[in-house]
Design a protein that fits this description.
The chain is α+β, with helices and mostly antiparallel strands. It has helices at 3-13, 23-26, 50-63, 115-122, 141-147, 154-157, 191-195, 229-241, 254-264, 284-299, 312-323, 325-328, 348-362, 390-407, 426-429, 432-445, and strands spanning 19-20, 37-38, 43-45, 67-70, 87-90, 97-101, 106-109, 127-128, 164-170, 176-180, 204-211, 213-214, 218-226, 248-253, 274-282, 305-308, 335-338, 366-371, 379-383, 464-465. Among the domains are: 97-214, Uridine Diphospho-n-acetylenolpyruvylglucosamine Reductase, domain 3; 218-320, Alpha-Beta Plaits, CATH 3.30.70; 333-407, Alpha-Beta Plaits (2-Layer Sandwich). It contains 16 helices and 20 strands.
Length: 467
């Protein structure tokens, strides 16, 4: 590893304003959305073209210096934390929508394009981009690709992977490759499927071809209130068993309701132990028929109150409350950890009851908000990092929740990724042969392991929790 030689080469490639090496300039890049992990890189570069990204990666490969690609830094697993001997390649200035084709229904974008900006650009064509993470107004498409992000509507429309048709990427060796294309029909191995969700270990996506969908003719958004979190979880199974396919199903518990209501005044019922948000979308005739069936299911599921959004503004306010929950939790606690384990839908109620029990056992408050349609939990574990041992206790509870997800037949991550946070749990979910296979694939693409070193696999510790 020759970091000095790399920095000298970068100084020739970038003007001083786009090569950050002083502590004040590096500080914003020390952590991502999971702030308990921090590390200061040797430098941050701000490329403005694909050629600059490619040349930077080639320089890193030639000197053996690790790099991490970064968008808006909204990762919640430590996935964008830098290596202390490496550099950060910040991609926010690669933010062009290169092409928007309403006939083929595709958009070709650079990695720094903000998620919601794709839908905004496509709106005049009657199209939109379906994946909608809670960080949609700020997160980038490149980061969504790296972590296979989902969102509230992933139950019906799937994850980022289901909407990426093609990629142009620079591999950690500096080679530039093209994968996929503009069609849903694949020829040969699904290389795009292997790349999406690789958490930056396979290099940097330079151009992403996205699938666009027609905007639904109408929406019907229903809010149902329950006296227990378990009853709300069980209601999801009843809805799916009825044959309905909502665009979204989300659950928030009492603490999440309290935080969101204080932040955006969404009009949520404050006496509810949990609320279930169900959204139907499509052609008006079909949606109205589904709405009648949905209301029947909800009436027998234990909901003590149901309400249908009467306007677009009321619908958007319901969703604003849901999507603001993570930031709003800051009103209730100075610090929190969020997990994103997954359980089978049929065991949602069981999982939620156990999380409540674990929270009481640890003496920690846990706010639950999650994508109920696919069983993707988001327990927000609240603590005060100023108290001795509080972070360790919160991390221990988070670990028990992940082990619960594994025991119930689920996964340790639904969309946030493994990153740094969940490395130690990978061997609990997969066998030695499985992990060895993953590592062989990674080393085949990145023999020096310079791309996002220290993430997913625990062989390289590059940062420690801030205590």
């Amino acid at each position: 590893m020759d970091t000095s030689a790399l920095l000298a080469s970068l100084a020739r490639l970038y003007p001083p304003a786009r090569l950050l090496t002083r502590p004040g300039g590096l500080l914003p890049y020390e952590s991502d959305g999971l702030t308990v992990f921090r590390a200061r890189p040797r430098a941050v570069v701000l490329p403005e073209s694909q050629d600059e990204v490619i040349e930077t990666v080639r320089l890193c490969h030639g000197t053996g210096v690790p790099f991490v690609a970064r968008g808006s830094g909204t990762s919640l697993s430590g996935g964008a934390v830098p290596h202390t001997e490496g550099i950060v390649i910040a991609l926010n200035r690669l933010n062009r929508i290169i092409e928007l084709d309403p006939v083929d229904r595709v958009a070709v974008v650079e990695p720094g394009v903000i998620n919601v900006d794709v839908s905004n650009a496509a709106a005049s064509c009657g199209l939109y981009y379906a994946p909608d993470p809670s960080s949609q107004p700020v997160c980038t498409i490149g980061g969504n690709v790296a972590f296979n992000s989902g969102g509230a509507h992933c139950f019906k429309y799937g994850m980022t992977l289901n909407h990426v048709l093609g990629l142009k990427a620079v591999l950690p060796t500096g080679d530039v490759v093209a994968m996929g294309g503009r069609s849903l029909e694949l020829v040969g191995p699904d290389l795009v499927g292997a790349y999406v969700g690789s958490e930056g270990l396979f290099g940097i996506a330079l151009e992403i071809t996205l699938r666009l969908l027609p905007r639904p003719e109408c929406y019907r958004t229903v809010l149902a209130a329950y006296r227990s979190l378990e009853a709300a979880g069980d209601a999801v199974s009843h809805i799916v068993a009825s044959g309905l396919l909502p665009g979204a199903m989300e659950i928030m518990d009492q603490l999440a309701i309290e935080a969101a209501e204080a932040a955006v005044h969404a009009g949520y019922p404050m006496d509810a132990a949990a609320i279930l948000i169900v959204e139907l979308e499509g052609e008006t005739i079909a949606v109205d028929a589904d709405l009648a069936r949905l209301m029947q299911v909800l009436s027998t599921s234990g909901a003590y109150e149901t309400r249908i959004a009467q306007s677009a503004d009321e619908r958007m306010l319901i969703w604003k409350g849901r999507k603001s929950t993570f930031s709003a939790i800051g009103r209730l606690s100075p610090d929190f950890i969020v997990q994103d384990g997954v359980v089978p839908r049929s065991r949602l109620g069981e999982a939620l009851a156990e999380i409540e029990r674990l929270g009481r056992e640890y003496g920690l408050r846990v706010a639950n908000v999650f994508h109920a349609g696919d069983g993707n939990l988001h327990p927000l574990i609240m603590f005060d990092g100023r108290e001795p041992g509080a972070l360790e206790r919160a991390e221990s509870l988070a670990g028990d929740i992940l082990r619960l997800c594994i025991a119930l037949g689920g996964s340790i991550t639904g969309e946030h990724g493994v990153g740094m946070e969940k490395r130690q749990f990978l061997p609990e979910m997969y066998g030695e042969a499985d992990i060895a296979c993953m590592q062989r694939l990674r080393r085949a693409i990145d023999p020096q392991e310079i791309a996002n070193r220290g993430k997913m696999f625990a062989e390289a510790i590059v940062a420690s929790p801030v205590l």
